[in-house]
Write a structure and sequence with these properties.
This protein is α+β, with helices and mostly antiparallel strands. Helix content is 25%, strand content 18%. The longest helix has 12 residues, at 75-86.
Amino acid sequence: MTSVYDFSARAIDGAETALEQYRGQALLIVNTASKCGFTGQYAGLEALHRTFADKPFQVLGFPCNQFGAQEPGKAAEIASFCSMTYGVAFPMFDKVEVNGPDRHPLYAWLTSQKKGLLGSRDIKWNFTKFLTDREGRVVARYAPQVEPEAIKADIEKLI
C-alpha cells in the first residue's frame, strides 16, 4: 500500500527530502501562493504548527504557480516572504505543479485518494489542504476557503 511517506520532494532550500522523515506524524499538506486572496492563511497554518509543535503533527507547504500566476517568485523569494511576513517555521518545499501532465507525484497520489467536488481530481485553487493520519493515509481534503483553525479538531483526533 502506498502512503504519503513513500514520496519525496525538493525542500525550499533545494535539498531532496523524503517524506519518510515524517513517519508516524499526521500531516497537513497545502499548496500555497504568496499573492493570493487566501495568502493570509499562512498565519493560521503557522498557528497550527506552533500549537501542535510537541505533537506528532506537521504542516507542509508546497508553493504552486498554476492558479493566476500567484506564486511567481523563486524559492529564496518565497522562503523570505513566508518567514518575514508570516513567521513561517513549518517546512516549505520548492514550487510544484498540482495539476496537469507535470503534476508532482505526491499530488497525483493525494488527489487520487480524496477527490474534490463532483469527483474531480484536480486542485481548484491555492490553499487546498490534505490531512493524512499517522499511518500516512489521506483522511480529508479541504477547500481553499476552509481556514486552518477549522481543521484543528480533525487534527486533534489524529494525534
